[in-house]
Structure formats: structure tokens, C-alpha cells
Amino acid sequence: MNxxxxxxxxxxxxxxxxxxxxxxxxxxxxLLPGPDGVTIVDPGPRxxxxxxxxxxxFAELGIGPADIRQIVLTHHHPDHLGCAxxxxxxxxxxxxxxxRSYREAQLMWGPGSTMNRDLPALFRGHGMPEExxxxxxxxxxxxxxxxxxxxxxxxxxxxxxxxxxxxRWLPMETAGHAPGHLSFYHxxxxxxxxxxxxxxxxxxxxxxxxxxxxxxxxSFMRGLLKxxxxxxxxxxxxxxxxxxHFEERLEALLLHHEERLAKxxxxxxxxxxxxxxxxxSLFGTKLGIHQMRFAMCETLAHARELERRGRIESWxxxxxxxxxxxx
Length: 327
Ligand SMILES: [Zn+2]
Ligand SMILES: [Zn+2]
Fold this sequence. Notes:
This is MBL fold hydrolase. By secondary structure, the chain is α/β, with parallel strands linked by helices. It has one domain: Ribonuclease Z/Hydroxyacylglutathione hydrolase-like (Metallo-beta-lactamase, Chain A). The chain has 11 helices and 14 strands. The relative contact order is 0.12. The mean pLDDT is about 95. Bound molecules: zinc ion (2 copies).
């Protein structure tokens, strides 16, 4: 089994790279040791390999279950929340996340979740053929072992500082990538643990999901503007490596989404299209089901934003298929 790459940034933040699937390759867990124990931020997806990685990392760092004071989650995605319940079973520690994030975890994997049928139904309505839509239920069910057990959680009050590693961090709530997503800002140093709200090199996925945020792209862009008010010296993201060009990255992401919206409008100038038609024009079809799902959810998020801005409109044909055209 692999020893995960561990980087001590010598400022109270230890980065542990926990393996995950292509194309992200790893998720960053951050360990913040403090006088009252270690805080683990985003422990990564639960897989047998990752359990081994954690055992090796703890041995290397001289950490036992009793040293883990708490686990803090930026958001509910399996690559961040996954190991939290498993680590809680061993340590008995408290797991913190936002209440909104917890509701999203329940929507995705809670006992009454119907997402494995609602998402394919949404996609079929937007023109996704059966060869793709038919794969989704099994694909979504495949995440359940990665998030089992879902931890017992305490809710973070976004209006109050959270103590981690002997420092007081300000929770910053931004939606769009995930409803209720929290970043944690330490004003004295300008450190920001930003989860997937802002990533270097990668544009964080913005997904329209049934039963979730109905305007995710607007939420995401508002979140970027909110984060722009911070003075960030180093951002510690959920994927790739810590980076210092935070404000530049915010600008690039805002521009990227405006360009994507303009491109979608140009496609609809040529002819009306379904969501799936737009998705294929933008992303192609050489994608696995995982990437296709993200591409489709992101296409629908952009179409919704153009509708909100009054640039395009949608109508439903007989048989329930939705089309988009210029307004
Ligand atoms: Zn995420
Ligand atoms: Zn992630």
C-alpha cells in the first residue's frame, strides 16, 4: 500500500494527499495540530486503499485515534466527507459541517434519497439518450461505500469563528460548487482553507441537481465575489497544491464562466437544442459516465443562468423533452 505524500508547510498546516480517481488524482486533507489535539479538514473518500493511506500517515506523524480532536468538512462531496464516519468510529471525535451541507449529504445518500432515479429522469428530460442515462443509477450507487458510514455531525455556525489547530478561523459560506460549502479564513495570516470553492488549474464543477440549488451558477459567481473581499496570502485548496495567486484565480474563473455562457448563446443562435445537445457541443462524447454526469449538470447550470438573465428560454415538447432557444 502507498504512503500518501505528506507536506508540512511549517505554519501549522500539514497537507496529506489522499488518493482518488482520475482526473483529480488526489484530495488534500489538511491536518492542523493544536494544543488540544489535531483537526482534520476533509479526510477524503473512503476506500480500502485510503484506509491504509491514513494508517500509514498517522504512523508517520505519530498520531493515534485519541489525538484527533475533530474533523471539519468544507462540503458534502464524497471525496471530502467520505472517511469522516470511519475516522469518527475509531476516535469518537466530533465531525463539523454546515447544516446546509448535511442536508445535501442526506439528499444524495440519506435513507430516503431518490437521487439515483431523479438525476437520470432530469437528464432524460433534457435529451440524454439511454446509453448514458441508463448507466447513472449504478454509477451513483457506487459512491455509497465511499461515504459509509455518514458521520454524526455538529453544525458549524457560519457567524462564529471555529477553533482549529490553536487558531480562530472564520467560516466563509459560498454555494455553487456545493450548497453550504464553507471555506475557513484566518485573517492574521491570510491563510484560506478553501475546499473546492476555488481551485488552481481546474474550474470547480458547478452542477444543477434535482432538489438542490436552482441557480447554482449565480450562487457560484456570487461566492467568488464574496471571496474577493478577503486578503488571501496562501489558499489551501481541496485539489492540486496550495497557491498564492488567489485574486487572479477568482478573476479567471469569473471570466471562464462568462465565456462559457457566451459560447452557449452562440450555439443556440444556430439552432434550438436540448441540454444534452449543448453538452455534447461543449464537451464531446469521449467521456466516461462520471465526467459526462458533471458535464451535463454543468451545462444545465449554464443554461439556467442564461434563462435567469433572460437571454434564452426553454419549452417542453410532447413527450416531455426540454429544448432551449434564444429569447
Ligand atoms: Zn466538491
Ligand atoms: Zn473535491
